[in-house]
Amino acid sequence: MRRYLFRRLIILLASLWVASGVIFLLVEGVPGDPASFMLGVNAAPDTLAALRAQMGLDQPFVWRYLHWLGGMLSGDFGTSFTYKTPVAGLIAARLAVSLPLAGIALFLSVALAVPMGLLAAARRGKVSDGAVMAGTQLGIAVPNFWFAMLLVLLLAVRWHWFPAGGFPGWSDPLMALRALTLPAIALALPQAAILTRVLRSALIETLGQDYIRTARAKGLSRARALTRHALRNALIPVLTILGLQFSFLLAGAIIIENVFYLPGLGRLIFQAITQRDLIVVESVVMVLVFAVIMVNFLTDLAYAAVDPRLRRRT
């Protein structure tokens, strides 16, 4: 297990280093001068030069990359030129919204998908299986932003069960959770549909294995064989999807955050791109990449916990 963990740590660190270089190269290599964009085309040359020096744009590319990388390693992400505040504080404030939103959406996705996947696999070919598959097809096909607007119209505007948008902060946890409920549902349903289909397929494949037939021959009921034996062995593809889903929910909620006016990472990076605030764009993208790579790392560890054979192969 130690060797397995060490190899995964090396891959994680190498992936982060390569990702940082690619992110910096792509963001800094975008055509156009951020200083000219911020000051306008009629800015005086000396004012433009002063802002370029303040932003570090007059320094060599490699030095700027090393300075940015060293700052991140020490916890200093720089200062936003739009908000005039440390980028680390901006990211921390927005993570307080995006991280709980992703967590709630993932919880709802699993809570819906597991019983639906078990039901569809246990009742394969029956009416209930067809109903679940039809529902998942609809969940995948319907855009989540359209579903989000439908939730706002019904549950917020018409019935007044939840707020239509905004985030009151965590000073009142109950109000904060109410504000995150509708966007979490809008994010969770498409992911639950995908997870249900993957779980159903994995369970059906597992139910055809010899050890399941042996368990059934010994008198174990289909439901017990499904929950005690088949479910655990069908978890590996499910864990892969869960890791990808959490990464998507954290990094890909830009549209949903704009629909509900949530001050999360998605809105922050969207605003930073439109304002050409490069240091914010680079730092937020790097945090999201770190989250994706870390989730994949934890998923690999979960694989090893579920299937010990993977530890022995590496």
Automatic annotation (TrEMBL):
InterPro entries in the record: BPD_transp_1_N, MetI-like, MetI-like_sf
SUPFAM superfamilies: MetI-like
Principal cellular location given in the protein's record: membrane
Intracellular or extracellular location(s): Cell membrane
ABC transmembrane type-1 domain location: 95-299
Record flagged with keyword Glycoprotein: no
UniProt-recorded name of the protein: ABC transmembrane type-1 domain-containing protein
